[in-house]
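Why does residue order matter? Because the sequence determines the fold. Keep that principle in mind as you read this record.
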Amino acid sequence: MPRSGPASELFIERHLVPELRAWRGEMSLAAVFWIYGVFVSAELAMLHVIALYLDQSWVQQAVILAFALYTPGILVAIWRCADNASPFWATMVRWLTVAWSLNTAFILLFLQVDLLMRFARG
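Structure:
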């Protein structure tokens, strides 16, 4: 019998199962770190580089916003999934997560300031 509930809950259950498992810390650390962390972040960075090259300011702004919204969630998922790894890798990844968060914060800050300065100049 199909489950009833709000449409948003049903959509999430059907289409975002791996992401929910990662958020809860139920996936392997390697998959979450390399696929959701490194690969997706690299794709977002490449989108920003392409928008920068094409001088698409609004696309750059959208990518900065997407990166700012995506990064905290994936870092929490990586932190939680570290429990599924050996103590060495769990500790290593948690330190990398701290460094990753600081690096991302500064990069996004500098990209945003640069973009605002270009908007101000016209």
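The chain has one domain: 28-121.
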